[in-house]
Structures are given as structure tokens and as C-alpha cells.
Design a protein that fits this description.
- It contains 5 helices and 4 strands.
- The protein is α/β, with parallel strands linked by helices.
- It has a single domain, classed as Rossmann fold (3-Layer(aba) Sandwich), CATH 3.40.50.2300.
- It has a 4-stranded parallel β-sheet with strand order 2-1-3-4, with helices on both faces.
- Helix 1 (about 15-30) packs across helix 5.
- The longest helix has 16 residues, at about 15-30.
């Protein structure tokens, strides 16, 4: 079983911490391992080397140019979390995004 290492970039980490908990629960429900954190988008450069997947909260898509450039420089493509998944804190749907990104 592989460990997923994921970072959500957001405004400040508050609402995303709730989403992170839902995603972790979804992975646990499937007996899968995940290491996941939420940080402000401006901190992406500080943590990107520790992860293999970067999720982007809908409230920071205005920063996509910078986020995308940072991710691409590290060989990654950022994944924008759809607003409905994020707003509903749908951990299972976001889990599927993460898994599908690895296929």
C-alpha cells in the first residue's frame, strides 16, 4: 500500500483544515494511507518538496499562475478542487481526485 503525500493550498488554512480531516477520513475508510496538510498558498514553495500532489482550494484560484509555475518547476500539475466538493467538504470525492491524478 502506498502513502499519498498531499498539500492543499488555500488562503490561511482554517476552512481547509476541516476539508483535510474529511479527506483523511475517506482514506481511512478505504484502508489507505495519506499524509496531508493545508497551508497558505504563499507558503507553497516552503512545502512543495515534501509532497507529490498539490490541491488548490477554490478561493485561491486567482493565484493559479504562481501556483502552476511553482508546481511545474517541481514536476507537478496542481489540481483545483471543484467548488462543490470543497463547499460540501466531500472527502470521498476529493479522495478520488487524488487517486485519479496518480493513474
Amino acid at each position: 500500500m502506498s502513502m499519498y503525500k498531499v498539500l492543499i493550498v488555500c488562503q490561511g488554512g482554517m476552512s481547509s483544515s476541516f476539508v483535510v480531516n474529511k479527506i483523511k477520513a475517506a482514506f481511512r475508510d478505504h484502508n489507505e494511507e495519506i499524509e496531508m496538510h493545508a497551508y497558505a498558498a504563499m507558503e507553497l514553495v516552503d512545502y512543495i518538496d515534501e509532497v507529490e500532489t498539490v490541491l488548490v482550494a477554490p478561493n485561491v484560484t486567482y493565484m493559479m499562475d504562481n501556483i502552476e509555475a511553482t508546481c511545474k518547476a517541481h514536476g507537478m500539475e496542481p489540481i483545483v478542487i471543484p467548488l462543490d466538493y470543497y463547499g460540501q467538504m466531500d472527502g470521498e470525492a476529493i479522495r478520488k481526485l487524488i487517486i485519479d491524478s496518480k493513474k
